[in-house]
Structures are given as C-alpha cells and as structure tokens.
Specification:
Elements lengths: L1 E5 L10 H7 L4 E3 L18 H6 L8 E5 L1 H12 L7 E4 L9 H9 L4 H14 L1 H12 L3 H4 L7 E5 L8 H10 L3 E5 L7 H4 L1 H14 L1
Length: 212
Amino acid sequence: MRVVCVHGIGVTSAYFAPLVRELERRHEVAAPDLPGWGSGPKPRHVLDLQELAASLVPLLPAAIVANSLGCQVAVELAIAHPELVPSLVLIGPTVDPHTSLPVGFVRDSAYEPPSLWWLIARDYARMGVRRFVRTAQLALRQPLAERLPLVQAPALVLRGAHDGIVSRRWCAEVAALLPRGRFVQLARGAHAVHYTDPALVAEEIEQHLAER
C-alpha cells in the first residue's frame, strides 16, 4: 500500500524522514513538501486547506499519515476523495480548543530533541512570517471538529504522552467525532513523536492498516 505523509505548519517533510525509513520496509512512501513550504511549489497566494489537500491528489490512492496542521489537510483530502483515501492516521491533530498554543509550545519543547528544533527553525525561516500567519488564520477559520463527522475512512488518532500542543482530551474527542475513529495514547514522545519514536509510531500504523 502507498502511504503519503503530510507535514504540519511551517515545517517540511524533513521531520518525517525517520518514520519514512520505518514505513518503507513494507510500503511505498511519499513525503512531499506542501505548496509554499520547503521544496514545494511557490504559489503567489497562500493556499487554504482545501487547496493544500488538492495538491496531494496526484499521489492518491494512498493511506494518509499526517501530523499537526497536516491532519486538517488530510481530513479535507479524505472528505473530497473518499474513494482514494482508504485510511487515515492523525498524529497530534490541531487545533486543540482546550490548550493555549504559546504555553503548549513551551511545554512541548522540553521533550523534543535539538535536531528537531534545528529543522523547525530552518523551515520556519524559509516559509516566512506572512505565509505562516495566513496559513494559521485559514486553519482556525475551519474548525476540525465540524469536518470530522464527514470522514468515511477508518482513522487512527495518535498522541505522544508528553505532547504539549494537543491534549489527551482533545485527541479522544477527535477520535470520537470520526465515524470510524480510534484513539491511542503512546507511552512516550511529544508533538513530533513520529520523529523521536518512529518505530513506535510505525508499529501502530502497521496494526491500523492491517485491521483495515
């Protein structure tokens, strides 16, 4: 089965590299940079969630593994093309209405390695403040909770035990709103648990795909 990894806001597919290596043992894996990020296309306007999702259509059919804001893009893709998205894995889906993002960002940073922060700093600088802020505004205007009931695919929601950006409560709510959702709290890791504990995340993904 093909697997497509969808990164979060500001960052690029680089932080999916450890998980991609794990998944490539059994699957064909694609980890593109979304338009406006990294090596992706550079549209003049800032793309909304539906436009970002549309950019991934040429990679379908595929199971989608997404992190953070990438989960919102993945949900839009699954809604628009249910016949081409047989399965979803949402890792730390945003935006959590129960958590203060600035406070959560500080809390999360204590559990992320320096190598990840170097990637984040580099990618944020390449994206630029204007595109980052506009993308965040577009994401906030379309609450994830309102979109989840429209997803037909079986979905696994994962959360690292020390994720400061999204709470256990929120991830459980996301899974409950999905018609075929299931929530797993991992024993370790933070918001980027797919980077720090790729083998652990890959194991959960494999189990989910096998059950599907």
